[in-house]
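We store sequence with structure; for instance:
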Amino acid sequence: MSSPVATQPPPTPPTEAARPKKPLLSTLLTRPEVGSFAAAIAIFIFFSALAEPFRSLPALSTVLYASSSIGIVAVGVALLMIGGEFDLSAGVSVVTGALTASMISYQLSLNLWVGVFVSLIVMLAVGFFNGYLVVKTGIPSFLITLGSFFMLGGINLGVTKLVTGTVATQNVADMDGFASARAVFASEFAVGGVTIRVTVLWWIFFVALATWILLRTRLGNWIFAVGGNAASARAVGVPVDKVKIGLFMGVAFMCWFYGMHILFAFNTVQSGQGVGNEFLYIIAAVVGGCLLTGGYGSAIGAAVGAFIFGMTTQGIVFAGWDPNWFKFFLGAMLLLAVMLNLYVKNYALNRRS
């Protein structure tokens, strides 16, 4: 006759409340953007002490606009860098988008919104072209997009001169659709007597959207995985090629959006613009904590990096420093920001160990 055997209940997993929680300070120090925040505070205090106009609200409005002009494209560039790739054609791509919208609408006498959407399709095709060549040929994105940089620069100058006879597009301020398009891409409004450009709101929106994608979606996990180790990511089923092509198209979309701002803010576009701006977008992402090797970074960090750039460029002007030394001061301030960022990161790593 068998007797019942008393069994012990299986151990229950520790509840959320029973798990040890990391101190808030340690959690914050592990974030990619923490170093850039420290650098931004240091630069703000520096220029506030040095230049009295820098402390005014109109100056803050100017700084925010300068930051958004870099930060919008830097959001896409930051996601691409987290995915382990570069895009050196971003600077001239902005102008390509603006030139396409302007010339399509003006030469064919169409509503400006037609040119805007045709330009979007063209720019997404440029992003697809870059991404497709990178994933199918295995050539580093540095070389692929360097080629795109020269090709787009030549197209911008050559086609503009061929179509308009000059190196600039015609004024589109009196064309159909201009008022509504300007309201979307280049309007401004007053808050407390201070003028705010709409690009600042769009910049905040894109940063919030990119942060949500990175931290709350499967796509965000794929982006980090692809940038950290593409081979391992592919082995566990991540569609590496599609993610990379999508990231290049994301950069192209941001270039198109900022290109529309240039067109509807100034009514005309110079075909030689944009050269060199690709480095500003990459610098903003790097200052904000994105690693050049991929797999690490944040959209918020890239936004702070762009804000550092905006404060530095405008702070030099408000401080009244010799404009002939502008680039030297700019480079020195950005170098100090990167060094302070690195110091804070090392402090956080030592604290964790």
Summary: Residues 1-7 have pLDDT under 50 and may be disordered. The chain is about 70% helix and 0% strand.
